[in-house]
Amino acid sequence: MKNLLKAIQIPLFLMLSLTFIYAANTNCPEALQGRWEQLGSRTVKFGMDRDEILVIAKEGFFTGLKIRVTNSALNMHKMVIHFGDGTTQDVELKNNFKAGQESRVIDLAGNRRVITKIVFWYDTKNARQTKAVVELWGKH
């Protein structure tokens, strides 16, 4: 009987320890929200234009994207997300961003995806003589 209890003690301890570690990590707000990483930025020209942000493979898998616009206003028409497997996802944005605004979280088709590049179509007004900066953020 003593041998049986000793044999059960270690696996039971390990199982309970792993359960507590998992529970502690999943209750953390950062763990629930994912980790955001800046994938790149572009200073945009005045008028109607198109820009690309290349994402290098070592940055990993992503579940969502967000756009942040700083310095000046920008009218974002759409973006096309290019994935590592050659497929694309068209996202119609049609947002008028003020300086300091960011987009909603854009969920990626297929959940965790490798992104190779993002192509943006936008136009800006030259009212403030300040160029807008578009930042691309990815959620792990």
Question: What features would you describe in this structure?
Answer:
- This protein is α+β, with helices and mostly antiparallel strands.
- The protein folds into 2 domains: 1-33; 34-139, Adenovirus Type 2 Hexon, domain 4 (Distorted Sandwich), CATH 2.70.9.10.
- Helices cover 21% and strands 47% of the residues.
- The protein is built from 2 helices and 9 strands; from the N terminus they run H-H-E-E-E-E-E-E-E-E-E.
- Strands 2, 3, 5, 6 and 8 form a 5-stranded antiparallel beta sheet that branches.
- Strand 5 and strand 6 (88-97) form a beta hairpin.
- The longest helix is centred in the first third of the chain and has 25 residues, at 2-26.
- It is elongated and about 85 Å long.
- Residues 20-32 have low confidence and may be disordered.
Short summary:
With 140 residues, this protein is α+β, with helices and mostly antiparallel strands.
List the helices and strands and how they pair.
Elements: H1 2-26, H2 29-33, E1 36-43, E2 47-54, E3 61-62, E4 64-70, E5 74-83, E6 88-97, E7 106-107, E8 113-124, E9 133-139
Antiparallel strand pairs: 1-9, 2-8, 3-8, 4-7, 4-9, 5-6, 5-8
Anisotropy-based shape: elongated
First CA to last CA: what distance? 49 Å
CATH superfamily of the largest domain: Adenovirus Type 2 Hexon, domain 4
Count up the helices: 2
What is the CATH top level name of the largest domain? Mainly Beta
Mean pLDDT across every amino acid position:
81
Helix and strand sequence: HHEEEEEEEEE
